[in-house]
Design goal:
Layout (H helix, E strand, L loop, with lengths): L1 E4 H17 L3 H13 L3 H20 L9 E9 L2 E4 L4 H13 L11 E2 L6 E2 L7 E7 L4 E8 L1 H4 L3 E5 L5 H8 L11 E9 L1 H11 L6 H7 L4 H14 L14 E11 L4 E8 L5 E6 L27 E4 L5 H4 L7 E10 L2 H12 L14 E3 L24 H10 L4 E4 L5 H9 L3 E4 L5 H5 L2 E8 L8 E15 L6 H16 L2
Helix pairs in contact: 1-4, 2-3, 6-9, 11-12, 12-13
Amino acid sequence: MTVIRKEDVISSVADALQYISYYHPLDFVQALEKAYNKEQSQAAKDAIAQILINSRMSAEGHRPICQDTGIVTCFVKIGMNVQWDSDLTVQQMIDEGVRQGYTNQDNPLRASVVADPAGRRINTKDNAPAVVHIDMVPGDKVEIQLAAKGGGSENKTKMVMLNPSDDIAEWVEKTVPLMGAGWCPPGMLGIGIGGTAEKAAVLAKESLMESIDIHELKERGAQTTEEALRLDIFDRVNKLGIGAQGLGGLTTVLDIKIKSAPTHAASKPVCMIPNCAATRHVHFTLDGTGPAELTPPKLEDWPEVTWEVGDSVRRVNLDTVTKADVQEWKSGETVLMSGKILTGRDAAHKRIQEMLAKGEGLPEGVDFNNRFIYYVGPVDAVGDEVVGPAGPTTSTRMDKFTDMMLGETGLTGMIGKAERGPAAIESIKQHKAVYLMAVGGAAYLVAKAIKKSRVVAFEDLGMEAIYEFEVEDMPVTVAVDSNGTNAHQTGPDTWRVNIAEMEK
């Protein structure tokens, strides 16, 4: 009979969450390096380079890969012969590990979990509780698979109840373009098939815990229905030309993972969950001898990748740029921004909307006239940092506020992640504004461009407060120009045709 101590579970979970906040799984890094070397789209290659550079910087600096340090999902497989030395339940032990991991003073992680989700949505302040799945298995050990899943990719989850005769690969091929780029490709797609609706979702999430091995599978050939389906979907999705960050390119997915379960004869439940470019997961086993020991990867295992902006880059002083100036910017251009920008996410936009509706105007000290807003919720700073990792959040969540912001505040442009919806693009075109895209999954790299930071309004919102950042050479891409030309449409359209031509 193995005895598992409460303290070992808590400290192992806390240490593991710190570990995955700054260490990518090496299989992911290696798969991303292959994609980088293969990529022919310059925009996509530049994006992958930034992700790889950011990954190495995070590993060296022990700071989060992405500012969205996720909601914790934990698969716990408990041996039937295990005995617990604990006055807490498994859920409570995991949650305490989450609290300790996310409030570590050396590397505080962003608390993103909110209670009362249908109502007040109050931040729990410590990222607990975790989502815990418990399975009793033979044996005398406890195996834990732990992941921190960002909201941008989690929000792109798709589920369907297909007819038994329907083609799963065809559904995936039609559905992936509808997900947009907010899940920060290239990443993995986890697909759960069978069981019931909720079982398919759990299977999909658990499949994302597996290592990347699609190239090995291609070399040896499929031996099961699931393996054949993985290869089929992998090829179909990459032929879509969506590419890194949705800018168009050869690699959209690095692997396809599938788990299945028996289902009702009349049913074919399918759930698809993407993992983003900040893929974070780790597995460990507790055998009663103490907490888990996680061996740090070697920094020499990271590829030596450099990124140069090139001669055609446009350098912009944000403190003097005018609305007339931005009308010269073209979709797909690289811009290096220096000067002051304001930040704001969902909660800040909602509060601004309420204030303007009441005739109160903007909060004191906030002036968006001829300014840019950056959609970001940064990690708290440590040591001599100006700000913690501060990558962009998914911009489509702000689409419903775009016309208000452009029409009523004098805003010149927006900076975020991934595509914008049709209504937002039309508003950008109408107001002769511009939307710029920073690379999702490169939060630590972006933060290095931020030289000063201060909260200017809504301090009670924590990471969703309005900050003023002073940036120097912050790299962005013009995603939607003042004419409404959209790089997230033109890029994939071009590369879908290019890939088809390559295969002729």
